[in-house]
Amino acid sequence: MSGNRCDIPLTQTDLAEATGMTPVHVNRMIQDLRARGLIRWKGGEFEALDLDGLCDVAMFNPSYLHLDREGRGLDAQD
Predict the structure, then answer these.
(1) How confident is the model over 18-49, as pLDDT tens digits?
(2) How far apart are CA 60 and CA 42, in angstroms?
(3) What pLDDT was estimated at residue 62?
(4) pTM for this one?
(5) What is the C-alpha to C-alpha distance for residues 28 and 41, in angstroms, rounded to an integer?
């Protein structure tokens, strides 16, 4: 992965099988994300063009990852 780009050597059918969706639904979702200008996915290369927009669409809140406190409270010995 480099910046907001990474190789995803999966077909839409592979992604559908992995997520339990139909290939048609995966295709529609990818097309919607492209139309919104949030992603570029071509030839196995994925790029997040608008990471904040993707987080909004996915209702993703990274605060649960506790990135501001890396390593604290993660050691089972404490």
Answers:
(1) 999 999 999 999 999 999 999 999 989 999 99
(2) 24
(3) 79
(4) 0.74
(5) 13
Q: Cα–Cα–Cα angle for 56, 22, 3, nearest 5°?
A: 40
Cβ atoms of 30 and 21 closer than 8 Å: no
Decide if pLDDT at 71 tops 60. no
Across 45-66, average pLDDT: 90
> What six digits make up the tokens of 22?
């139909």
Residue pair 46/54 in contact by the 8 Å Cβ criterion? no
- Written as six digits, the tokens of 78 are 């404490």
Q: What is the DSSP string of 3-60?
A: TTEEE----HHHHHHHHT--HHHHHHHHHHHHHTTSEEEETTEEEES-HHHHHHHHT-
- Asked if 39 and 49 touch (Cβ cutoff 8 Å), the reply is yes
